[in-house]
Automatic annotation (TrEMBL):
Membrane-spanning segments: none
Chief localisation class: other
This protein's UniProt keywords: Competence
Native source species: Sporolactobacillus putidus
InterPro entries: ComGF (IPR016977), N_methyl_site (IPR012902)
Name this polypeptide is given: Competence protein ComGF
GO cellular component: cell surface
Length: 145
């Protein structure tokens, strides 16, 4: 019994158990990592939708709307306030009220373009992963109306 060649049933079951546990841990780790990357992408999409929703609310409460000639700023005039949306370094879009301070309204932005045609406004956002988002709306309240 001292000179046995080969595996016994007990040693085979032990090796199989260790292999099964190792594979289970590897698959669990990979699925968690994959879900983390998926969540990061969806957060950007949710942030863009929230930005469009908030901008729409601001637009609907404004009397006038205009864009800068280089299409890098959206300017809304609401009561006695001037609200400006513009890109800022690094990869952010900020909101200024009367040129004082700022609020970060969107992050991870590679490029943003504002287009104004009369009462119509459109915004195109390209995120850092190259995905493009587009939104358009119109001004409801016009000055003097």
């Amino acid at each position: 019994m001292k000179n046995q060649d080969g595996f016994t049933l007990l040693s085979m079951m032990l090796a199989l158990s260790i292999l099964t546990i190792t594979l289970f841990l590897a698959v669990s780790t990979l699925s968690v990592m994959g879900k983390q990357f998926e969540d990061n992408a969806s957060i950007t999409h949710k942030d863009v939708r929230l930005f469009f929703s908030q901008t729409s609310r601001e637009l609907h409460l404004s009397q006038t709307v205009s864009c800068s000639p280089n299409h890098r700023q959206l300017i809304l005039n609401k009561n006695n306030e001037q609200i400006v949306f513009q890109p800022s370094y690094p990869q952010r879009v900020i909101r200024l009220v009367n040129g004082l301070g700022y609020e970060i309204v969107l992050q991870h932005v590679k490029n943003i373009q504002f287009q104004c045609t009369g009462a119509f406004v459109s915004i195109q956002v390209i995120d850092t992963q190259g995905r493009s988002y587009y939104w358009s709306d119109r001004l409801y309240l016009e000055k003097g109306g």
